[in-house]
Amino acid sequence: MAALTPLLKARGLKRHFGGVKAVDGVGLDLGPTGVHALIGPNGAGKSTLVGLLSGRITADAGIIEFAGRDITRLPAHARVRLGIAYTFQVTSIYPRLSVEDNVTLAVRHPSGDVTTAARAALARVGLDIHARQIAGDLSYGHQRLLELAMGLALTPRLLILDEPTQGLAAGEIAGFSALVRDVARDASVLLIEHNMDVVMDLADRITVLDFGRVLASGTPDAIRKDRAVQAAYLGA
Amino acid sequence: MTGGVRVWALHLAVLVALALAPLVVPPYHATNLARIMVLAVFAMGYNIAFGYTGLLSLGHALLLAAGMYATGLLVAHGGWTAGPALLAGALAGAGVAFVVGLLALRTTGAAFMIVTLMFAQAGYLTILYFGDLTRGDEGFTLAREARTLFGLDLVTDATRYSAALALFAAGLIGCLLLVRSRTGRVLVAVRENSERTRMLGYDPFRARLLALTLSGLYAGTAGAAYALLFGYVGASFATVQYSVLALLWVLLGGAGTVLGPLVGTLVMFYLVDFAGNLTDATLFVVGAALILLILFARTGLLGTLRARALAWLP
Fold first, then answer.
1. Chain B interface includes A16 (CB < 8 A)
2. B237: which residues sit within 8 A by CB, 6+ positions away?
3. In chain B, where do the E strands start and end?
4. pTM of the model
5. How many residue pairs from chains A and B have C-beta atoms closer than 8 A?
6. pLDDT per residue rounded down to tens, chain B (314 residues)
7. CA of A160, closest CA in chain B: separation in Å?
8. CA nearest B189 in A: which residue?
């Protein structure tokens, strides 16, 4: 893994809100494939960090490189076009449009069949049978899956999932995990997650944030054994 | 595919009905219809910004006036012929909308309404300030001989009607093509959920600026055509009343429907006309109609029709 050049490389990222050091000098390397989990207690700076990576929040300091290119000053929509997809923590879909129209907006083929690509993304999350339904009428779990389908339809090189299993039933989580594992075969997945079972099940690497800084970073086994992490977070 | 055929058939049928109307209705109504079609182009432009993209502007009178005065002043003082002057009016509307958009689109919601209103008021006062040229509130008329387009005399009823119809048809088809295109879907996406749209890789600012500029192109063209077809250019068209009228026409007909602006302009025009026969307080009747609309058909006439029966209506 270490020999590969990272897909995304962040160094010295800082973002302060007034006196709050939400992100305070964070470095992060993401490989071209695999699941990298971001964990930490509430207020540790996880959402701010992915905000910085996706471009929804601008950094006070630090640099971000994506596929060898400096994207620190690039606006969010341009980063999406480079292949960084972000799924919202609070479900954000077009509730008044059909399920299919939601996903179609995410498909960006200069040529080719947009509808086929949209249907394929829907089929992948198992929502193809609901394609014609109004998105706002879907159940909460299905809306989360629609959000994921929109992320997939972007055919991202890096998919950022912000607490994707929040509010999902146990059965839905199993299907979701299988899907993420499948996506991570040929794309990088950055997963923010509170459910430790999901994290330990899916993650190839874990970064632990606390008070806006990296507390530890490593394989799930290493993180489990890390004393600082146990003290701060896992509750040893 | 059949959905597409149905949509085109309906809109072409409306255009054919408008083309046949002067053969069956008295000349008084034919002149009204010509005026309504020109004003409906203005309303269609407003609908692109408000109905499809969610930009609630209170400054569209500025864009109407930009086209009207660009054309009127170039004809009256610059000696331009109608064709180039019409083009200049259309571009003036689009250009002013683009520049106003660069500044006003940094705001949203109520702030956007206020900023656009302020720009429009500044435009209105500018017209009054250059009273030597514009003759202020009183306005000015265009000489009969200047109102000839491609050899057609725009003063006669029949050619005026045909010119208004041609303009309206171009506007309607343009609008239909836009809203059925990918760009049109992105405008709706920006209206429905701007942040989500940004995170799908679209620049919402750019989409809004495009919508506002197209809206200005429609408004400017309508203003320019009004000057040439009806021979009058006046500051009343630059007042806030016309910004509000565009909003009301679109709301009445159905915001975010292609035919809504025509329906709204037509119904409101004849409502005022009808009320004028009964009372001097025509705005009272208009107000009552709007209250009924809010109570019983919030999405406008065609919006309600679409929700109840015709889901395919674009």
1. no
2. B61, B64, B65, B68, B223, B226
3. 140-141, 148-149, 152-153, 232-233
4. 0.89
5. 50
6. 467 888 999 999 999 999 998 889 888 899 999 999 999 999 999 999 999 999 999 999 999 999 999 999 999 888 888 899 999 999 999 999 999 999 999 999 899 999 999 999 999 999 989 988 889 888 898 888 778 787 778 888 888 999 999 999 999 999 999 999 999 999 999 999 999 999 999 999 999 999 999 999 999 999 999 999 998 999 999 999 999 999 999 999 999 999 999 999 999 999 888 888 888 888 888 788 888 888 888 888 898 888 888 888 88
7. 11
8. A94
Judging contacts by C-beta atoms under 8 Å, the chain A residues touching residue B204 are: 77
What are the boundaries of each domain within chain A?
32-58+74-234
| Order of strands, sheet of A61-66, starting from the edge strand that comes earlier in the sequence | A20-30, A8-17, A61-66, A69-70
Which member of A85, A96, A108 has the closest CB to residue B192? Answer: A96
Q: Please count the other Cβ atoms lying within 10 Å of the Cβ belonging to residue B165.
A: 19
Judged by a CB distance cut-off of 8 A, whether residue A54 touches chain B is yes
Kindly determine whether residue B199 and residue A80, on different chains, have CB atoms separated by under 8 Å. Answer: yes
* Nearest residue to B185 via CA among B4, B53, B8: B53
Q: What are the structure tokens assigned to A6, written together?
A: 């990272």
Q: Which two tokens stand for residue B254?
A: 């159905």
Sorted by sequence, the CB contacts under 8 Å of residue A39 that are 6+ apart come out as: A46, A192, A193, A194, A196, A199, A206, A207, A208, A209, A233
Q: Compute the nearest-CA separation of A93 from chain B (Å).
A: 7
CB-CB contact of B105 with B209 (8 Å): yes
The CATH number given to A32-58+74-234 is 3.40.50.300
A5 secondary structure, DSSP code: P
What domains sit in chain B, N to C, each tagged with a CATH number? 2-308 (1.10.3470)
User: Contact, B307 vs B258, CB < 8 A?
Assistant: no
Q: Do A154 and B189 make contact, defined as CB atoms within 8 angstroms?
A: no
Half-sphere exposure of A202 (CA within 13 A, CB side): 35
Q: Least CB-CB distance to B200: which of A56, A97, A154?
A: A154
Whole-angstrom Cα distance, residue B9 to residue B1?
12
Phi, psi for residue A68 in degrees, rounded to 5: 80, 5
Whether residue B188 and residue A97 make contact (CB cut-off 8 A), yes or no, is yes
Would you say A215 and A228 are in contact if contact means Cβ atoms under 8 Å apart?
A: yes
* CB nearest A105 (choices: B185, B195, B203): B185
Question: By the CB < 8 Å criterion, does B202 face chain A?
Answer: yes
- Which residues in chain A are closer than 8 Å to B196, comparing Cβ atoms? 88, 92-94
Residue type at position B20? L
Q: How far is A219 from chain B (nearest CA, A)?
A: 30
Q: How far apart are CA B162 and CA B151, in angstroms?
A: 13
Q: Touching check for B17 and chain A: CB below 8 Å?
A: no
Cβ neighbours of residue B199 closer than 8 Å, sequence gap 6 or more? A54, A56, A76, A77, A80, A85, A86, A88, A92
* CA B189 vs CA A50, B99, B104, B253, B290: distances in Å: 24, 23, 20, 22, 28
